[in-house]
Design a protein that fits this description.
Number of helices: 4
CATH superfamily: Dihydrofolate Reductase, subunit A
Radius of gyration: 16 Å
Number of domains: 1
Helix content: 10-25%
Bound molecules: NADP nicotinamide-adenine-dinucleotide phosphate
Amino acid sequence: MTSKLTIEGYVIASADGMLADASGTMPDSLRFEGDSVFFSASLDKVDLIVHGRRSFEDQPNSPKRRRIIVTRGVDALAPDPNNPRATLWNPAGASFEDACAAAGIREGTVAIIGGPGIFAMFLDRYDVFWLSQAPHVRLPGGQGCFTGVPARTPQQLLAAHGLSAGEPRILDAAHDVTVTPWRRR
Ligand SMILES: NC(=O)c1ccc[n+]([C@@H]2O[C@H](COP(=O)([O-])OP(=O)(O)OC[C@H]3O[C@@H](n4cnc5c(N)ncnc54)[C@H](OP(=O)(O)O)[C@@H]3O)[C@@H](O)[C@H]2O)c1
């Protein structure tokens, strides 16, 4: 059966492919107004967002969004006792489609927003991955934006999983920050 879900990914990575520093925190050096505006506006258009228990997009519209939080704290699926719009999901106990259905979504667009293990889980499923890049920021010893970085670059991993780069869009001209859509070939 063909999935009725469109799956998108969103990350901002440093020049060396990191989404967080060596302490596991996303530093202010990786935060740019143009990227925040793009990310927030993009999430406003999707039906559901998915992230690991330690990630959160922290935007004005965050409380309104339906979300799946990935955690080993449940066996399969459960409502989040702390957020009526959130579903807790353990991929070891339930399929992604079942998780989306539990969140009330059987068709539409789902945004995957991290962290690295969650991004990597969907590498064979993205319809488009929006890779924002900050070419003047380096985070040595940081957390790669996918499992498998820095042994391979994010671009190599996206290409190896059947995605091709489109035209980059400038998000912050002063800092040369761009976003590139990687679409399934
Ligand atoms: N630059 C960016 O665009 C960007 C994007 C996303 C995140 N980040 C940053 O990345 C950092 C967080 O990364 P992270 O990897 O530590 O956090 P994360 O992926 O958000 O959360 C990790 C947690 O997710 C759950 N999890 C992960 N894989 C799982 C699996 N296969 N099965 C079940 N549960 C699973 C576990 O939760 P339990 O412990 O509850 O079992 C794990 O502790 C933060 O600093 C965040 O700000 C940056």
